[in-house]
Amino acid sequence: MSAVIALDFEQSGIGSKIAALTKAELDVLDFGVIGFDNDGIVRLYNEMESKFAGLSLEKVLGFSLFTVVAPCMNNFMVAQRFDDAAISGGVLDATIDYVLTLRMRPVKVKLRLLASPGDRFRYVLVRRDS
Amino acid sequence: MNALPNIDVATECEALIQFLYLAPVGLAQTSIEGDIVLINPITSQLLMPLSRDGQLSNLFTALENVAPDLRHLVTSFSSARGMICDAHRIRLYAGTRRTTEPETLSLSLLKLDANRLMAVLSDVTLQVNRERLLRQNEAWLNAILTGISDYAIVGLDCAGCVTDCSDGVSRVTGFGTDAVLGRPYSVFYPEDSTTPDRVLDRLREADDNGWSLDNGWRIKADGTRFWGSAMIAPLHEHQIHDGERAYCLIIRDITDKREASEIQRKEQSCDHLTGIANRRAFFDAAELELERAKRSPRPLSLILLDADHFKSVNDRFGHRAGDQVLRHIADTLASTFRQIDVVARIGGEEFAVLLPSTNIEDAMAVAVRLQKLIQAQIVHVEGHDIRYTLSGGVAAMGTDISGLAELMKRADQALYAAKANGRNRIEYWSAK
After folding, report:
1. Beta-sheet strands, E only, within B310-398
2. Which of B90, B298, B306, B321 could join B105 in a cystine, given CB atoms 3.0 to 4.6 angstroms apart?
3. Neighboring chain B residues of A75 at a CB cutoff of 8 Å
């Protein structure tokens, strides 16, 4: 475990660092990571997020993020931000307070929304408020 | 004993979780006070944009801005269990950021027992819009097909002035032909229930839709009121010059149907606690009025009012006293403004009044009169004498405003200024 790369949820430029991590390295992070492609299909889903949501990888990978995996984010507060960034071609890096319904319990979280034109994936990072 | 040896509990559990994640309606289980115990993602999707405090710990709090009377609805439900409301319509803010944002939610609340509620929430925007069209058609058929005992037929010119009358006019309204010839048809309406602008609006709407129907108080020659339906239909072909337009107005006395139709209207459009219009009715009326103002420009003002330090009234005297104060505000509003003005409770202690054909000076004057009236009054509740005050913000429709959301925002900014400047006062929005 000495090779663990400690990433901080709040650190700047986190998007490119996450893109460089292997699946095993993503799995030891202490926050959830969801990576999805330009069609909104989930391509990355780390261990922490899987534990939060109670969903295994095969129920998530290859499915649409905002309609199948996390419909609770399909509104102007989250999904629209990604749409707007895609249309304007700008960089999105915003952290918002949100409430997710993990295993049907309302859970206060911080969401960090990341999108950068030209990147392979866009990301939603999820950290539980302590 | 192992009755189901082949079923993996963890797999089952995951399938159930995903089933709830994917359910296309919002589901929530709460305590009787609305504290959320279980909630699925669609509920969060629908509620998060509305939640005043950015949390989802209490259903009533999350919906406070758009359905302020929920708590009251639940506490006044006396049965041990049962449906508290079934597909109750909740109107959201008009003109949100994208066109696919919901405009109307449907909420059902089921009381399971003394401690638990189940809530079902869904976006019914499309359905509501379809129903509105159907309802209009139904109203039209009702107006021409049912209960035709007596009616007055009045010919109108392009300005809405009476050109001729059937015999029925004197039977239904008591007016002789000579008394109404050449006068606008508002002669059949109580003074504060229409304006010269509204008289023309109805003609334009009849042009656009083929007819215009409104039920409400009408007035007889001797000054007494009756509950009447008034339908206006154009007599001309489409696409003619304004001056050649002519209309037919049919007035019927439907006093005997008033009770039934008013009960129905109140259920849909009135705030449960105060009896004045609810958010949904307010937004419907306001959008129609904005349409009218766009088609033929005229002044239009909006007043937003908020009870000062209302929380401390609740804290000191209890929720029943708070409810009493809200009713007092509603009653005072209803008696201060005209019948044509739309008076509504749009939030917990927030009220709105839309004043058609009224400029900002006149709206200010009446808002200040109201504020002084409230300040001078005492509400007696359970042995307490409660004094309270109101703050208000006034804004008027301008050419630089595209819709209701913007007008509301300006009035809200003025209200905020009134609060910041010490409360118990009215401010108006200006470009500065």
Report:
1. 342-345, 350-356, 379-381, 384-386, 390-396
2. B90
3. 45-46, 48-49, 101
